[in-house]
Amino acid sequence: MVVLTASIYYLATRYTFSDFYKRLETRAVIAARIMLENESGSVDVFKEMRDRILEKLPQENDYIYEITQGETFEDECKELGLPKSFFQNILEGRYSEYQKKNIFYVGILYENGGKRFVVIVSAENYYYSHHIDNLKSILLAVVIAISLLVLFISIVFSKYIFNPVRQITNQVKSISSENLHLRLQTSSKNDDINELRNTFNTMLNRLETTFATQNNFISNASHELRTPLTVIIGEADVALSRTRTVDEYKDSLKSILTEAERLERITRSLLFLAQTGFDGKRQTMELLRADQILWDVKETMDRLNPKNKIQIDLSLIPDNPLKLKIRGNQQLLHLAISNVVNNACKYSSNQVVKISIGTTDDQVIFVVKDVGIGIPPSEMEFIYDPFYRATNTKSFEGYGIGLPLTRNIMRQHGGTISVSSQVNEGTTVRLTLPLEKIEAYL
């Protein structure tokens, strides 16, 4: 509004100046003809035109000076308060104009009867001094009025617009770790405010899941760690309660050793889980062949569990060995795949476990499929929670760290893990890793 009104004021002022100068130029021509024409009839006509048709301007004055040889008009400049350039322009045959406060001057060169004259007309610009000032006052009042109106509308509108935001703020303030089940009220409207509510609710869902996972981890971890410690302390107390035979001491030490080894395995698994859970810990990466890792896992499983029935399917393996190249940490990838294969053998009671390997343009894919007990659908969302074990695995030994550890390792290598399962029909685990660029080896 300020720019608009300033532009209107500027353009109106320029137009007023231009129009008034044209008025004065017309009057200068008329004044010259009235004063210098010799024919009385013409003079009378022009006088009548000036008196009847043209409006008398405030402080209007006419000045006519004959141009003589060597005339510089210095005295006239001082008398009228005009610069020398004003007269110089007229002498050169050009139109000349000048403004002194509210008085405007226009000068022309007029020739009559072989003589040349300087004709000057001056007058106060009534339109500038009165109408433009009036326009300025009107524009200023309009700007102030519209600004106040816009301010009032903005305040009312902002209260209407931000009221839902304030409601969201108040509802969010009332939600804490003790009542994460609460959610913001949503509506059927498809607008930004409702999208904001849905975003908050989605975030609260993630937070609630994270808190539940943390509580579940603490509960399960404390149970897994407390059990061997309780056995160790109990055996030591029993052994030390009285003097016993050598065989009794050996039995107590064997029991303590077994539980200590179990405790050591849990602790080592936790350390691996912690190491693979932080991106800041860099692991040594090297160029590896995916199929070689698979054969190493098979060899390890044969040594640890000779009763396994692992079958490796190489029907989808590419002919080009470069398409099996991956970059990663051999120990961690071996551990990740071993965890999946070991679970498949364990939860299928050493029935047939099929491992397939194949590649796409940019990935190598491992698929491990068993025909074991499966995972209940309602518990699939918890399979990556550390120490979480499905309800149908109570008769199997384990700690619930294998899948979380595998997922962390896959993430470190830019890969993925996906699990699908049906109870009493089996589980399929799909592991993907990015292939190294082939051009690097050509």
Structural account:
- The chain is α+β, with helices and mostly antiparallel strands.
- It has three domains: 2-131; 192-276, Helix Hairpins, CATH 1.10.287.130; 286-441, Histidine kinase-like ATPase, C-terminal domain (Heat Shock Protein 90, 2-Layer Sandwich).
- It is 53% helix and 17% strand.
- It is built from ten helices and eleven strands.
- The protein has a five-stranded mixed beta sheet, with helices on one face.
- A hairpin with a 2-residue loop joins strand 3 and strand 4 (115-124).
- Helix 7 packs parallel to helix 10 (402-412), helix 8 (290-304) packs across helix 9 and helix 9 (330-347) packs antiparallel against helix 10 (402-412).
- It starts with a helix and ends in an 8-residue tail after the last strand.
- The relative contact order is 0.07.
- The model has no long low-confidence stretch (mean pLDDT 82).
User: What's the CATH topology label of the largest domain?
Assistant: Heat Shock Protein 90
* Major sheet: 5 strands, mixed
Query: What's the average pLDDT?
Result: 82
- The count of domains is 3
- Over the alpha carbons, how many angstroms does the gyration radius reach? 50 Å
CATH H-tier superfamily of the largest domain? Histidine kinase-like ATPase, C-terminal domain
* Distance between the amino and carboxyl termini: 68 Å
Molecular shape: rod-shaped
Return the CATH class of the largest domain. Alpha Beta
**Strands of the largest sheet, in order across it?**
6-8-9-11-10
Strand elements, count: 11
Q: Helix fraction?
A: 40-55%
Structural class: alpha+beta
**Poorly predicted spans:** none
Order of helices and strands: HHEHHEEEHHHEHEEHEEHEE
